[in-house]
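Q&A log
Question type: sequence-to-structure
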Amino acid sequence: MSRVISLGTFALMILIPSLIVVFGSFKTDAEVYNKPLSLPSVWNLDNYRRLLGDSDLDVSFRNSVFVTVLSVALTLVFASLASFAIARMVTVSKKILAGIFALGLAIPAQINIVPIYYIFRDLGLTNSFFGLILINITTTLPISIFILTAFFREISKEMYEASEVDGASPFRIYRSIALPLSRPAMGATAIFLFVINWNDLLWPLLLIQESGKKTLPLAMLAYRGEYFVSFSMLFTAVMVASLPMIIMYLMMQRSFIAGLTAGAVKG
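Response status: OK
Response body:
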């Protein structure tokens, strides 16, 4: 009974704010302020028409897609290579490398905002997609390596040894054996990274000033003024910004579920 109550409470904590956002996207600002929990008096798509007619938001949406896709793809490449190496090492270097990447989890990159900004400014990486992608890779690489290393360790040593006997190089083993077997883990990690990079506001806010290079979360700040917040448009923007994450999950849900359950049952 306690489990049902706990799960029910947790579900309501997620459902109620989600419904406020969904219903709010069909309301006017006055309705959102006066009746935040009620249904819209008139269901219309005026907010969506206004939002989709905003050319600046369209540019920001494309910028977010470009930055997120490249950030996720490159992070998976680097993380999978590093994870494979760590999982296959049998020397003390294995523990040293694992410890170094674990420090990346223990020390948040946000505490280094000031030096990061000055370094990127001196290198000419502000107002640059390359700089934004670089900081995304840097900040998400430790957690990606942590996740993928656990899956690479689950692959039986006999498969690696058999490949080595057949004369396969380490890179060939990585490409032909480790990667195909780790697709569930790669899919789960990809969804995890996509959500982090797509919703990121801190680094674009720090590094991007040009309006033409703003990402979607940064562009959504335009609906928040000093004295007034247009919640109806903000909720509409949140709904539109959530669509790529929903599509990403629907396309890769099998890999995501398999990645979460991999290694749960042995024997």
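Response note: The two ends are 33 Å apart (CA to CA).
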